[in-house]
Specification:
Layout: H1 3-16, H2 39-53, H3 59-62, H4 68-80
Length: 81
Amino acid sequence: MERKEIEARVNEFLIEEMEIEADVIRDEALLKDDLGLDSLDFVDIVVIVEKTFGFKIKPEEMANVLTVKEFYDYIESKVRG
């Protein structure tokens, strides 16, 4: 899966499922502060990512993922193995 496809799928569920405005989804945007995601949102995101990309998320691995770009990077590293 190409990086652009990963980004498109992530952006799609952030907009549709998390109801985030498209214009705030930028590489440097902070998941919590800029996108307004809370711990319950992260539970939903874990389920969506596992269904969409086919891998299990380990909470300790997500602990250091703070920005949208880091989230893309994390998913890309898991998808490409």
